[in-house]
Design goal:
single chain; alpha+beta; Rossmann fold; Cyclophilin; Type 1 dockerin domain; 3 domains; eight-stranded antiparallel β-barrel; seven-stranded mixed β-sheet; 12 helices; 33% helix; 24% strand; binds flavin mononucleotide
Length: 371
C-alpha cells in the first residue's frame, strides 16, 4: 500500500511537470547586446546561473560616445529608419541555433524600445529562431519594458516565449546577481527532445547513430540487441547477414535505397546499405543511419563485422533490464529504495549522482513522457 501511494504520488508529480525542466537542464545560449556594460553584467550572471553560453551582439561602432542626447538622437533616427525598413549593420551572425534548446535574450532599452542592435539581431535570425524557446531580460534606466517585449514578439512571431521578462532598472542594478538567479529559477523550459538516434551501429572504431523504424520488424530487431553481425559484401553497395531467426516482415519496393538504410530482405537477412541507388527488390525497413556520410569508408570493400546496440539514451533508465524504459523501471527504483534485493545500484542510479532517490524516478518519468 505504501508503495502504491508513493507510485501514485510520483505519477501525479510527473503529470504536473508535463516535461518542464529548469534552465540548468537545457542547453542555453545567452545572447546579449550592451552599450555601457549593464546588460553584459546581467547576461554574465544569467549564464552563470543556467550554465549557458554567452554571445555578444557587436554593433557597427558608430553610436556616439559618451552617452548623451546625441546618442539618443542617433539611435532614435536609426530606429525610424528601421521602422521604414532599413536595418543597421551588426557584426554578429549565428549560422545555426541547433545546438541550443533555449535562447535567453538580454537587451538594453533605447528610447522606450528594444536597443537597435538586438532588434536587428532578432530580425536577421528570426527564421532560425522559429520554434525555439526564448526568454527575455531587459535593462533600462527607468522606463517600463512593454515596448521592448512587443518588439521581441514582433520580430520572433514563431518562437515560444518562456517565463515573465526580467526587468532591471536603476533601482535594482545593485542586485543584478540575485535578481538574475531568482529569475533563472522561475524559468521552465520544455525538456530537450531525445537525440534522433536510438541505435548505435559500430564499425571498427567508428560509431554511427541510427533511428529504428516504428514497426514490428524494428521492434523484433531491437529485442535482439546488442548483437554483432559478420556481414558480407555485395555489389559495392551493401553488407548483409542472415540471422538464425526470422523477424516479422511486410516487404515492399522502396524504389530508392538510401545510403544508411537498414533493411530486412526476406524474413531473416539484415542488409546495411552504404550507397544510394534504385532497386526493384522488396524490403522491410528496420531503420536508418542518421548521418551516413562516412559509412561507406568505415565499412570498406570487403566483409565486415558490425555491432548493433541500443543507444545509452534508451538503456539509461532500463533499471530492470528488459530492453525498454517504462513504468516497471519506476517500480524497480522504488523497490531498490525500499530495500528489495535483486536491483543493481549502478542501474538504479539513473542520473549517476551516487545515490538512488526520487530524482532517478523523475528522470525515468521525463524519458517516458518525452517518448
Ligand atoms: C541610446 C540610448 C537610449 C536610451 N533610452 C532610454 C530610455 O528611453 N529609457 C530609459 O529608462 N533608459 C534609456 N537608456 C538607458 C539604458 O536603457 C540603460 O542604461 C541600460 O541599462 C544600459 O544597458 P547597457 O549598459 O548594457 O548598454 C538609453 C540608453 C541609450 C544608450
Amino acid at each position: 500500500m505504501k508503495k502504491l501511494l508513493l507510485l501514485l504520488g510520483i505519477l501525479v508529480q510527473a503529470i504536473s511537470y508535463a516535461g518542464a525542466v529548469p534552465a540548468s537542464d537545457v542547453r542555453s545560449l545567452v545572447v546579449y547586446y550592451t552599450y555601457s556594460g549593464v546588460t553584459e553584467s546581467l547576461a554574465q550572471a544569467i549564464a552563470d546561473d543556467c550554465g549557458g553560453t554567452l554571445l555578444q551582439v557587436i554593433d557597427h561602432g558608430n553610436y556616439p560616445r559618451p552617452e548623451s542626447s546625441t546618442t539618443y538622437n542617433y539611435a532614435n533616427n536609426e530606429r525610424s529608419q528601421i521602422d521604414a525598413g532599413t536595418w543597421p549593420v551588426i557584426n554578429t551572425t549565428v549560422e545555426s541555433f541547433d545546438q541550443w534548446d533555449a535562447i535567453i535574450i538580454c537587451t538594453p532599452l533605447w528610447n522606450g524600445k528594444m536597443a537597435n542592435p538586438m532588434l536587428t539581431f532578432l530580425h536577421n535570425h528570426a527564421s532560425k529562431l522559429a520554434g525555439k524557446q526564448v526568454a527575455l531580460a531587459v535593462t533600462s534606466w527607468s522606463s517600463g519594458i512593454t515596448n521592448v517585449v512587443n518588439d521581441a514578439h514582433n520580430q520572433l512571431p514563431n518562437s515560444t516565449f518562456v517565463g515573465t521578462p526580467l526587468h532591471i532598472n536603476y533601482n535594482n542594478r545593485s542586485n543584478i546577481s540575485s535578481m538574475a538567479q531568482n529569475w533563472v529559477n522561475t524559468l521552465e523550459f520544455e525538456a530537450p527532445a531525445a537525440p534522433a538516434g536510438d541505435l548505435r551501429v559500430i564499425v571498427g572504431n567508428k560509431t554511427f547513430t541510427a533511428t529504428l523504424a516504428d514497426n514490428a520488424t524494428a521492434d523484433a530487431f531491437r529485442s535482439m540487441l546488442p548483437m554483432t553481425l559478420n556481414m558480407n559484401e555485395l555489389n559495392g553497395n551493401e553488407k548483409y547477414c542472415y540471422l538464425s531467426t526470422n523477424l516479422p516482415s511486410a516487404a515492399s519496393n522502396p524504389g530508392t535505397i538510401h545510403a544508411g538504410d537498414i533493411m530486412l530482405y526476406g524474413d531473416n537477412c539484415v542488409v546495411l546499405f552504404y550507397e544510394t541507388f534504385n532497386t526493384s527488390y522488396r524490403y522491410t525497413r528496420i531503420g536508418a543511419v542518421d548521418d551516413p556520410s562516412e559509412l561507406a569508408d568505415a565499412l570498406g570493400s570487403g566483409n565486415v563485422s558490425v555491432r548493433f546496440e541500443l543507444a545509452t539514451t534508451i538503456l539509461e533508465g532500463d533499471v530492470n533490464g528488459d530492453g525498454s524504459v517504462n513504468i516497471s523501471d519506476i517500480t524497480a527504483v522504488i523497490d531498490y529504495i525500499l530495500g528489495k534485493e535483486g536491483i543493481d545500484f549502478d542501474t538504479a542510479d539513473v542520473d549517476n549522482d551516487g545515490s538512488v532517490n526520487i530524482s532517478d524516478v523523475s528522470l525515468i518519468i521525463d524519458y517516458i513522457i518525452s517518448k
